[in-house]
Design goal:
Length: 239
């Protein structure tokens, strides 16, 4: 199955928090989009693996994505090495995406920037003919996405561009709230308090979307960074 966009995320809910609106927007446009989570988020202070799995399924339905997989890498302990690179390469070659979205180039959680670098390196290596990988018993063809963009997470990064998600902000927030164990609930009095479980954390996500949209006169937007030059066909399409 070929995908238009393949999203990689260090933890379940990373994609929803950072680019859920972009995912929803392009699903609505008929694009095939998949998410591959690297870990199960098993080190999270709240919830457990079975709960996170069910929440991930619910969020995926809200976004309307085509596929969602989990590589079962160790939360907090995956590294940029041959084993982990090959796992990513296999998914890139399996789904042959035109675009890849992945974790931020820097962020508060060290897994995020490490995942961003891991996926970026894997995408380059995935295009090399002499690196062999198998899907079942069949040899995979080399494939490199045309562009790879890092979504922006909690720590502010100057975006290379932003995507207007004004019509999809509610769907984004709904997909985030599907992870009930992770975010604020008034009756979760016995759960440990975390930064993202604070009562105003969703307000921060909405405010960040407003901030990203402000300079381009969008009501809400999501930001992305990249280390390559972006070409445009028509300069009048630039906001």
């Amino acid at each position: 199955m070929k995908l238009d966009i393949l999203v990689f995320a260090a933890h379940p809910d990373d994609a929803e928090l950072a680019c859920g609106g972009t995912i929803a927007k392009y699903v609505a446009m008929g694009k095939k989009i998949g998410i591959v989570d690297l870990t199960q988020g098993e080190l999270s202070s709240r919830g457990d693996v079975p709960t996170r799995k069910k929440e991930t399924e619910n969020s995926s339905k809200i976004l309307g994505i085509t596929i969602r997989e989990n590589l079962l890498y160790r939360d907090g302990f995956f590294e940029i090495d041959e084993q982990h690179l090959l796992g990513i390469i296999k998914k890139i070659r399996k789904y042959q995406p035109e675009l890849i979205l992945c974790n931020a180039i820097k962020d508060r959680h060290p897994d995020h920037s490490r995942a961003g670098e891991l996926v970026a390196r894997a995408n380059f290596l995935s295009g090399l003919l002499k690196i062999e990988s198998l899907e079942g018993m069949e040899k995979q063809k080399s494939w490199r996405a045309r562009k790879l963009f890092h979504y922006i997470q909690e720590q502010y990064v100057e975006p290379s561009f932003v995507v207007d998600i004004s019509n999809f902000i509610e769907q984004k927030i709904d997909s985030i709230r599907a992870f009930e164990s992770q975010f604020y609930k008034s009756d979760a009095t016995n759960e440990p308090k975390t930064k993202i479980s604070s009562e105003d954390y969703i307000d921060f996500i909405i405010a960040r979307s407003k901030e990203m949209g402000n300079q381009c006169n969008f009501e809400y937007a999501e930001g992305f960074s990249c280390n390559t030059i972006i070409g445009v066909d028509n300069i009048f399409d630039i906001h």
